Amino acid sequence: MCDQTNTPRIYDISRTIAPSLAVWPGDTPFGFSYAMRKRDGMAVNLTTLTLSPHTGSHADAPYHIADDGVHPADLPLAPYIGPAHVVTITREHGGIVPADFDGHDLSGVKRLLIHTWVSDLPDNQWPDEFPYPTVELVDWLADMGAVLLGLDCPSVDSFDSKDLPCHHRLRARGMLNLETLRLAGVPDGMYELIALPLKLAGVCGSPVRAVLRELDMNS
What we know:
Elements: E1 10-12, E2 31-36, E3 46-50, E4 58-60, E5 81-88, E6 95-96, E7 111-115, E8 132-133, H1 135-143, E9 148-151, H2 165-172, E10 176-179, E11 189-194, E12 205-207, E13 211-214
Parallel strand pairs: 5-7, 6-8, 7-9, 9-10
Antiparallel strand pairs: 1-13, 2-3, 4-10, 4-12, 5-11, 11-13
């Protein structure tokens, strides 16, 4: 987090990718090995990474749920950069609905980042249950012109969902999503989001380095 005087504050809302990071049960945990080491007399330290495209804070690609969906390399970048609303909700479990945002002004929302209790979990702890969006919420946001939905939870569908209704509805409504963000310590409000997926071909998602920058209200 940047605290330079008169400089817009930057919040890093990414989970740290490390071997201890909790991943979706059954998915590939992050790991690395050394191909070269300085201490062995090599010119450089060179590591080889092993990880799932859904490791930590990540962007799903439509190919994740559809054989004809695009891969990260072909995703539009504009939805991942721009004004974003951060909103904290009190729901702990079950489907997130528009009523969970009563009292919050979401007029003109383009990107909504939902802050729940899951952000307070350490990186090595997996939530047994978590709140997740409903199709009703996706349609409500899409009707207002939203292009991206971000969560601190591991999925836009419930943990045990097999038909993944919200994943499919997001695609049908032309919206993209981010999952497993970490919004602890970020006050509710408007920010500039920057969370670009890597230019990966042929895969189903991409880790992102997601940041929020305070808006300069004087500009």
